[in-house]
Amino acid sequence: MANLPIILDSTGQDIVSKLEGIKDALQPGDYVKFTPQTLTDAQKAQARKNIGAQALQPGATDFAEMQRIIQEGNGPEVYPVGSIFFVPHAEIIDGVTVALPFEVVAHDHYAIAGADHTMTALCYYGVRNIQISNKQGFYNTGSGLAAGAYSWKYNTTTLYFNLPSGLGANKLLVRNSNTSATVYDIATWANEGNITMQTSSIPGATNLGNSGDTDYVIPVHQRLDSGNPNYGQSFIRQWLNSNGAANEIWYSQKTPWDNFSGINFAGFLHGMNPDFVDIIGETEIATTTLAYEYPYQLPDTSTVVYPLNSSYTCKDKFFLLSRREVGLEDLTPEGTVLEKFDGAAATDRIKSLITNASSPQNWWLRSPNTVNTEYCVHSSGVSSNTSATNTYAAVPACNIC
Predict the structure, then answer these.
(1) What is the mean pLDDT of the chain?
(2) Segments forming the whole domain that contains residue 205
(3) How many domains does the chain have?
(4) What is the CA radius of gyration of the chain?
(5) What is the pLDDT of residues 14-48, one digit of tens each?
(6) Per the domain annotation, does 4 fall within a domain?
(7) What confidence score (pLDDT) does residue 290 get?
(8) What is the mean pLDDT of residues 86-102?
(9) What's the rounded mean pLDDT across residues 183-192?
(10) Are residues 257 and 365 in the same domain?
(11) Does the structure show a pLDDT above 70 at 367?
């Protein structure tokens, strides 16, 4: 059986312990193996009864075989919804390789170009507490700011500051309070110190812009405090699909005000078994903005601008599920409910962190709620929402094809 650590809740651990003790006495059809086979309905029912539809762990070399079974249309028979499989991952828990459990949540739900069949898998646990985005900076210096006095408006308050020596190109100014802002270098994300701000007027100050004005030079003030909830531009989306190592700069700005200060951990793909990554297709997922947007364009071909109240698609290997896909609403065009969550109770949506399996956590969805808030699944399994800067569990989904 398993030669890698198995991480399950107490029920799953009890199941595995019992299977280890009686494996020699098991009869065909008593459990779901990760080998080609056809199961009768009675065998599948027995499998669910015996181990809660949790399948035994495949070795790393089994992933190509898994792909073949799915491509031939036998996925629903061999890997019924509710089955668990494990993927070796070396970075999720401080560089220690663990068997990261994924649960099968649907078959042939998503269409992927060149694939006749797909199998959708969702991490059984949240893999990391993470933000949708950092709070945004209020000003990108672009080609630089000359020495002098400047002002800008935060909500209803005009703030003033002096730059005796000016600022160089590509610096991001991030508000800490009405009396202080920090300067970051966008190329390295090094902290270059603070500037003092004040509410007292400085005669002759050059106005940099007003938060929320139609010139959109400065983001709406809620995003200065609570981040940008648009999934397509989000930091969490970049993290899910990055193979970058810790302390590397593997992210890039998707808006002029994106702030990556303090981020020093590896991308989700870094340390993941490459055989598994190879069988994951790029899924086109629908997302909405339903939020305040900006008509800007960075000098970067990967930059995308999303109009107010629009629907757009992202195409990635790993992604977050939408509110609609987990069965919490049926109004937005963000996909359709997955088989696992069709008619599901709130308890069917409860997740915990892999590092703290006994404690249910709030976990992120990709659906934006307001100008600065994102939907999530509450630790009780019901719908909730919160600021994009909060650190909630990320539960990656993918399609094998």
Answers:
(1) 84
(2) 139-218
(3) 3
(4) 24
(5) 544 544 443 344 333 333 333 333 445 554 444 44
(6) no
(7) 67
(8) 84
(9) 97
(10) yes
(11) yes
SS3 content of the chain, % helix, strand, coil (to 5): 15, 30, 50
Counting Cα atoms < 13 Å in the Cβ hemisphere of 58 gives 24
Sequence-ordered list of residues with C-beta below 8 angstroms from that of 186, at least 6 positions apart, any chain? 140, 170, 171, 172, 253
User: Is 310:316 a contact under the CB 8 Å cutoff?
Assistant: no
Whether pTM exceeds 0.85: no
Assess whether 231 and 104 both reside in one domain: no
Query: Which residue, among 303, 292, 163, has the nearest Cα to 224 in the 3D structure?
Result: 292
Does 357 reside within a domain?
Answer: yes
Q: Which amino acid is at 73?
A: G
Asked if 365 and 247 sit in the same domain, the reply is yes
Both tokens of residue 18? 């019992």
The distance from CA 111 to its chain's CA centroid, rounded to whole angstroms, is 21
Is the pLDDT score of 322 beyond 70? yes
**Is 5 among the domain residues?**
no
Residues 17 and 93 in one domain: yes
Burial of residue 346 (number of CB atoms within 10 Å: 0-12, 13-18, 19+): middle
Q: For residues 136 and 138, give the distance between their C-alpha atoms in angstroms, rounded to a whole number.
A: 6
Residue 262 lies inside a defined structural domain of this protein = yes
